[in-house]
Amino acid sequence: MRSHSLYRFSAAALGVGCALAASACSGGNGGSTAPPTAPPSGEASGSIRAIIATIGLPPDPDGYTLTIGAQGQAVAVNETVTFSGLSAGDHSAQLAGLEANCKVSGDNPRTVSVAAGSTRSVSFSIFCSGVTVLRDLIVFASRRQGLWDIYAIRPDGADLARLTADPRDEVAPAVSSDGTKITFELGGQFDADVYVMNADGTGRLNLTKGVGKSFDPSWSPDGSKIAFDRTPGVAGNRDVFVMNADGTGQENLTNTSPHDELPSWSPDGTKIAFAADPDGSFTVFSIFLMNANGSGRLRITNAAAFELRTTWSPDGSKIAFDSNRNGNDEEIYVVDLVGGGLVNLTQHPADERNPHWSPDGTRIAFSSDRDGNWEIYTINADGTGLTRVTNDPADDRFPTWSPQ
Fold first, then answer.
1. Nearest-angstrom CA–CA distance, 77 and 62
2. What is the mean pLDDT of the chain?
3. Distance between CA atoms of 256 and 179, rounded to whole angstroms?
4. E-assigned strands of 280-328?
5. Domain total for the chain?
């Protein structure tokens, strides 16, 4: 156990129950393998595949100890390990060494029956709670467990934590300015809604409740409102909406025939940047600004390109966005709203998307496939100092900074 300097704890939250189901079922091989223990002479053996899955903040920093029968070993907070050489029959499986804020869902220990020559699976689902405020983290979406889930990580790549585990995709997270809430998009093309949850992944609430298909939430600076885009059905034009943080008062701000999406609030809360298809052709998307009430629509980029997700510098003088204006690859650009200059920050033949400015204005997080799959990177606001934050075979995208 070590000190969690990133987090602020709530004693009342430590008793929150687990959100994931635990099970024992048939399965295949996978993950690391514990040293085998030979069964008695002449007795056939089998294996148990143990799946350890932890969500919530803060996770146990030292992992756990898993014991099956007479075998025991240290396991990480998210790991799959196979225990082989087990005699046929019933075996006790127990996970120990959990922090006080982490709870196992279901029986612990539990009994797993092994048949000779087969592998059985047992899943331990752990939920950790207690964080009330996110500080100095990058929250992002990842497909590490197959579907898109929400994760958090330090900007230096340390202290990875999984925050959600839903059987539907969860993407496009955004952290409130006080660090206490995360809004995100759950679902897909046919059933997307905007949700909100507490900093540790508890208290999930559907804000849009199946009214149309809702995507791409963005907090107002004071945390009182959320902007998002919506289409009335599976197909159709999107418009930018705004609602109160509890989902009430939903209002269409654009209500125009062109396709309007991906809203982003200015730091002073007076304006919203968004991407729009200016002529309805779906061949060009440009960056627009409007007042927070939907008035004063102004186009600020004019390239024959797709220019989509935006992020404001903390002083409101610049906007970073992704664009393919230099060819097929997408880059991160910064436009100066005062001086009018435009800079290509990334200048790489791979695709870079989803920029998000750090609260102190010094760094921009983004996703890129420059190393073979989508990972999270950060770069200085002047284009120097590239740092890779994530490193996993699965795709990591949609980074957003928490308050610092």
1. 8
2. 89
3. 33
4. 286-291, 298-299, 307-312, 318-323
5. 2
CATH number of the domain enclosing 336: 2.120.10.30
DSSP β-bridge partners for residue 395: none
The secondary structure element, H or E, covering residue 50 is strand 45-56
Q: Which of 128, 154, 173 is the last residue of a domain?
A: 128
Q: For residue 363, what are the contacts with CB-CB under 8 A and spacing of at least 6?
A: 155, 357, 378, 379, 380, 381, 385
pLDDT digits (tens, 9 = 90+) for 89-138: 999 999 999 999 999 999 999 999 999 999 999 999 999 998 999 999 99
At 18-30, the pLDDT tens digits run 333 333 333 333 4
The string over 138-150, giving b where at least 16 C-beta atoms fall within 10 Å of a residue's C-beta and e elsewhere, is bbbbbbbeebbbb
Residue pair 168/76 in contact (Cβ under 8 Å)? The answer is: no
Q: What percent of the chain has pLDDT over 70?
A: 89
The answer to whether residues 201 and 318 belong to one domain is yes
Residue 146 pLDDT > 60, yes or no? yes
The tokens describing 126, both together, are 């752990």
Task: Please check whether residues 111 and 159 belong to one and the same domain.
Answer: no
Of 67, 95, 128, which one is at a domain's C-terminal end? Answer: 128
Report the candidate in 299, 318, 300, 321 with the shortest Cα–Cα distance to residue 310: 321
Domain region containing 77: 8-128
CA distance 11 to 331: 44
User: What global pTM score does this model have?
Assistant: 0.85
